[in-house]
Write a structure and sequence with these properties.
The structure holds 2 protein chains of 2 kinds. Chain A contains 14 helices and 21 strands. Chain A is of the alpha+beta class. In chain A, a hairpin with a 3-residue loop joins strand 2 and strand 3. The longest helix of chain A has 31 residues. About 6% of the residues of chain A have low confidence. The mean pLDDT of chain B is 89. The chains are: A alpha+beta, B alpha+beta. Chains A and B meet through strand 19 and helix 14 of A and strand 3 of B.
């Protein structure tokens, strides 16, 4: 049996460092004699406990991969042995973060079709070894399957050759790649609110570092701001706001470039392989037969420049598949459409059926209701001039209208397409045979208008699995139900 | 489509009453410990709890009647369908081939009434999508056994 890469010990000790160093530091920083002793004890603890545990864990972790299965033995006191048949392995992911890169180790994750508990990870082995294992398992799986095509393990049929809808099975060619120029553009157009929030948070930290609260300097600053008049204050504040926005924009570019550096997508044997990342490299495999839906996304700014992204939701059990996997993070629409056609032999529908126009009324009433509640409480607390906010009513109506315009659905071939979103737009396509349950939902207000909401549930992980078409005419809903039903049993 | 066993109304009633007893007691404790000692307010002690309880009683009388009236379930050629809801109406369908596993569950109240719940799980992200309450125990078990044969072995 084999052992992991020895650098694993170093990695574990470094990563575990905060666990003993932070309490040690805290105690050290408010020194007294007694606590100095404690600090010493903690340091000792690290030496006599943490490091030996890492070493012992390394020593007792062994793995073996043979013709049919992966065997992993672990545990210092409580021994564990896990056997995973090769045929059960669905995904093999290789991941490496920055520190792992320096130590020349990498993580290999084996995802199975069971639940998360039946997964295994080799933390950590050398990159070369990881690639070897990936290739080996891939090859073995195929040979097993070609020998006995059905009933390998408890009746589960494994088809390595994917469904007929998948073309270009034999090619291992790169089908998409992000050039550095495009990557830069991607970062420039990203504008994630999260980064903006994070930046503002960072700025709020700058203050205690720049000036000591007790110093004279700080008093000068306070005096300076107190002496400003209205216009000057507005000027300084807007400078600050612009600074936050510009730095967060730059930070987002850096983060994006770091994450999606050298993004490449390959298609081989019914599986999509992605690899990307600068400081931490990610290599992912997406088996197309586990596909539940695919989503084309954009936002208003990106749409203006004709840029879109494509991600795929797969039937998820493992922690790895919780997030939808980006297949194309950023590209022109035309290119993505071409790609969808190549991979799935499928064209996105040109036009969609709209939802009921009554939806505008309902959405407006809903928005106006909450707006009015907020408005009345503002007027109550801050006085009558808050009535200015009443000017928002036309904007709310316009927004309700936009929501209506941006929603739509259609059945095209054996797939259902659903579009939504005013600022963040998405078009989700679900193969009808992947649907798990179908649900028609009518609130008391929808019933008055003869409207309904439809939920289509798939096995995709998390909330992404549940797609709703909001506010369509009840008769359309019933018709859609019928259509989906007949298509479902037809394609099964 | 089929209706539930009428005895389920009783179970719902007891459940609603128990819930509102809990609410009113909880409020009583909050009022006694937090509100009365700290804030001057003109509401007599216990009035809100009493109102809550009265509301719960009325709710328990009325709602189960309508909930029962609108609850329907049907096993069709190749799918199972349920329909329910007093205010929000929901119709859920699940094809037999999508069923992952089936449970028959009995709470204490169910046992006292000789009833059971049939829960049908799919692989969908919602998990337990179909829950049929208030079925006679044998009926629920028969249903489970006949549906069992239809459970899919297909991958998704």
């Amino acid at each position: 049996m084999k052992r992991l890469h020895p650098n694993t010990i170093i990695y574990r000790v470094i990563v575990g460092a905060p666990n003993y160093l932070i309490p040690a530091y805290l105690i050290y920083s408010n020194q007294s004699r007694y606590e100095e002793k404690l600090f010493f004890i903690l340091g000792l603890f690290a030496l006599i406990f943490v490091i030996p545990v890492a070493v012992l864990n390394y020593y007792f972790f062994k793995y073996e991969i043979n013709e049919t299965e992966v065997t992993i033995k672990s545990g210092i006191f409580a021994k564990k042995q896990r056997v995973i048949p090769l045929s059960k392995i669905q995904n093999i992911n290789i991941e490496q973060n920055f520190l792992q890169k320096i130590l020349r180790i990498t993580q290999l994750k084996l995802e199975t079709a069971g639940d998360a508990t039946s997964e295994a990870a080799l933390q950590f082995i050398s990159y070369k070894e990881a690639l070897n294992i990936q290739d080996y398992i891939q090859a073995k799986k195929e040979s097993i399957i070609s020998k006995e095509p059905i009933d390998i393990i408890d009746g589960t049929t494994l088809e390595v050759v994917p469904a007929a809808s998948i073309n270009a099975v034999e090619t291992t060619d790169e089908i998409f790649k992000l050039s550095n120029r495009e990557l830069l553009r991607f970062g420039m157009l990203r504008f994630r609110p999260v980064v903006l929030l994070f930046m503002s948070w960072l700025y709020s930290f700058a203050q205690p570092f720049l000036f000591n609260n007790d110093s004279e300097e700080f008093d000068h600053i306070i005096d300076f701001f107190a002496s400003l008049n209205g216009t000057e204050l507005v000027f300084y504040l807007s400078v600050l706001v612009v600074a936050v926005i510009v730095t967060s924009w730059l930070a987002d570019i850096v983060l994006t470039v770091n994450r999606y550096y050298k993004f490449s997508l390959r298609l081989a044997k019914g599986k999509l392989h992605t690899s990307f990342g600068f400081t931490s490299t990610k290599r992912g495999t997406i088996p197309l037969k586990r596909l539940q839906s695919l989503t084309l996304r954009t936002n208003v700014i990106k749409k203006y420049f004709d840029f879109y992204s494509l991600d795929i939701q797969t039937a998820g059990f493992g922690e790895n598949s919780v997030k939808p996997e980006a297949v194309v993070p950023f590209s022109k629409k035309e290119k993505i459409l071409k790609l969808i056609e190549d991979i799935f032999d499928f064209q996105l529908p040109d036009s969609l059926k709209g939802i009921s126009p009554l939806s505008v009324r309902r959405a407006f009433i809903k928005l106006a209701f909450f707006h009015t509640v907020v408005l009345t409480s503002l007027v109550y607390f801050f006085g009558y001039y808050m009535f200015v906010i009443a000017l928002f009513y036309p904007i709310l109506y316009y927004y309700a209208h936009l929501r209506f315009v941006n929603r739509g659905y259609i059945i095209s071939g054996d797939k259902l397409a659903v579009k939504q979103g005013v600022w963040f737009k998405s078009l989700t396509v679900i193969p009808i045979r992947k649907i798990q349950t179908f649900r028609i939902h009518q609130t008391i207000f929808q019933r008055r208008l003869g409207l309904a909401t439809i939920n289509v549930d798939t096995a995709a992980a998390g909330i992404t699995g549940d797609i709703s078409i909001i506010d369509i005419d009840l008769r359309d809903a019933a018709r859609l139900n019928q259509d989906i039903k007949s298509k479902f049993f037809e394609t099964l | 489509m089929n209706q539930l066993d009428p005895a389920v109304k009783n179970i719902w009633r007891i459940n609603i009453i128990m819930r509102y007893v809990f609410y009113s007691l909880a409020f009583l404790v909050v009022e006694w410990l937090l509100i009365s000692p700290n804030i001057v307010w003109n509401v007599p002690f216990g009035l809100i709890s009493a109102l809550l309880f009265a509301f719960g009683l009325t709710w328990a009388v009325i709602i189960p009647i309508y909930r029962y009236k609108y609850w329907r379930f049907a096993i069709e050629d190749n799918e199972i369908r349920i329909k329910y809801g007093v205010f929000t109406r929901v119709t859920t369908t699940a094809p037999f081939v999508r069923i992952q596993h089936i449970d028959v569950q009995q709470s204490i109240l169910d046992r006292m009434h000789g009833l059971a719940k049939l829960i049908i799980y799919t692989a969908g992200s919602r998990g337990a999508d179909i829950l049929i309450p208030g079925l006679p125990l044998e009926y629920a078990e028969d249903m489970r056994d006949s549906l069992k044969d239809l459970i899919s072995t297909e991958e998704f």
